[in-house]
Each structure stands twice: as structure tokens, then as C-alpha cells.
Amino acid sequence: MARNPILDLSLNQVMRSEIALSLQVLKIHTVGALLYAWRNPKNQRNIEQIFDSPEQARHALCTCSAWLGVVTPAIANPVPAWWLGDAPAAEGFSAVVLES
Fold first, then answer.
1. CA distances (Å), origin 51, targets 1, 20, 69, 92, 100
2. Using only C-alpha atoms, what is the Rg of the chain?
3. Using an 8 Å Cβ cutoff, are 54 and 45 in contact?
4. Residue 1: which of 96, 68, 67, 64 has the closest Cα?
5. 15: β partners
6. What span, in angstroms and rounded, lies between the C-alpha atoms of 65 and 62?
7. What is the C-alpha separation between 99 and 31, in angstroms, rounded?
8. Strand partners, 10
9. Between residues 49 and 81, the one the model is more confident about
10. Where are the alpha helices (DSSP H) in the chain?
11. Which pLDDT score, from 0 to 100, does residue 7 have?
12. CA–CA separation, 42 vs 67, rounded Å?
């Protein structure tokens, strides 16, 4: 079975730079590494502290999982933007549009 290319997508391409850079300090550079790290409860707490809120971190993980086809329940309340699409373009990064 072929590896899904989304797993190799750099976090710099999909997240605000300050979040992506903070995750890189934890040796989390790709969507796949983020999903793998999230499986450990200790890592979950560290990852949640990087985002603006724990809910925002969970939303990011649910979104990354959804790109792989994992079905997750909807979140009832709005979550502040963690993705690049709504953040001001900075440092030459642009949002990635994923098409199926």
C-alpha cells in the first residue's frame, strides 16, 4: 500500500508559522509526525500548549485526520484560526490547497 502524501506535508505549509516552528522544536515537522505524536497523552499536553487553546490543537488534529479520510464529529463552537488560509501571509509562505 502506498503512503499517503499528506503525511509528508510540512507543517509550515498548512499552519501559522509560529505554531509550526514551535512544533519543530518538539521534532514534529510534518502532518504525519504530528498525528503520530498526538497518539501519546504526554505529547498531547505539550502540543496543546503550543496552540492558542487545547480546542484549537484538537481542531488542527481533527482536520489533519480528515485529510486522510478519518471521520470525526463536528465541533460545536468556533475555533480561532491555526491554519494559513485566514492568517496574514508572512515570510513568503502561502496556503496549500488540497484537492481530491
1. 33, 10, 24, 22, 28
2. 13
3. no
4. 68
5. 83
6. 5
7. 16
8. 30
9. 49
10. 17-25, 31-38, 41-50, 54-67
11. 93
12. 24
Backbone angles phi, psi at 84, to 5 degrees: -75, -30
Q: What is the average pLDDT across 79-90?
A: 63
Ramachandran angles phi, psi of 93, nearest 5°:
-85, 145
Q: What is the pLDDT of residues 33-60, one digit of tens each?
A: 999 999 999 999 999 999 999 999 999 9
Distance CA 13, CA 39 (A): 22
Instruction: State how far the Cα of 10 lies from the Cα of 96, in Å rounded to an integer.
Output: 10
Mean pLDDT of 65-72: 86
Residue the block writes with cell 498526538: 38
Given pLDDT bands bounded at 50, 70 and 90, which one contains residue 94? very low
Place of cell 505539550: 46
Q: Per DSSP, what are the bridge partners of residue 30? A: 10
Q: Which grid cell is 42?
A: 504526554
